[in-house]
Amino acid sequence: MELLVLTPERRLVEEAVEEVILPGKLGEMGILPGHTHLISELEIGIVLFKESGGNKERSVYIDSGVVEINNDVIKILTSSGEKAEDIDVEEVKKEVESLEKELSTEEIMQDKQKFNMLEVALKKALAKLQAAKYR
Fold first, then answer.
1. Tens digit of each residue's pLDDT (9 = 90 or more) over 36-73
2. Which residue range(s) make up the domain with 71?
3. How far apart are CA 27 and CA 125, in angstroms?
4. Global pTM?
5. Distance CA 7, CA 123 (A)
6. 14, 74 in Cβ contact below 8 A?
7. Could you tell me if 52 and 91 lie in one domain?
């Protein structure tokens, strides 16, 4: 199978793969060779994949998107993403700490819109940390 992860700026991944796990809107989706044609929305999270001919698992963070699977080509379009090896873990940990602290304030609890924005930012940061585990 071939995995393509594309953002408007660049190609994040173009790899031959044996297996892919995607963050679907209704939960994780596992993709193996011969998968039926599919177009689906993706959630903020990580795309986990096993390289063809090896046992190494790798990952890439995506900021939601769309996947099309056809003839063993898995094409993911996302507004932004980051390879696991490019994630600055220490910086993201600081971001998580800051967001958790801000989310716990009384002021934020009263502002539903700001609370929701911070909650999404925290979800993104936690997904980046999860992706970084597969360097």
1. 999 999 999 999 999 988 788 999 999 999 999 999 99
2. 2-84
3. 19
4. 0.91
5. 19
6. no
7. no
Cα 135 to Cα 121: distance, rounded to the nearest angstrom: 22
- Alpha helices for the chain (secondary structure H): 89-103, 106-110, 112-132
Backbone angles phi, psi at 90, to 5 degrees: -65, -40
Q: Could you give the number of structural domains in the chain?
A: 2
> Residues, the chain, total?
135
Who contacts 121 (Cβ-Cβ below 8 Å, separation ≥6)?
Answer: 95, 99
* 71 backbone φψ class: left, alpha, beta (φ>0; ψ -120 to 50): left
pLDDT in tens, 2-48: 999 999 999 999 999 999 999 999 999 999 999 999 999 999 999 99
Asked if 7 and 61 sit in the same domain, the reply is: yes
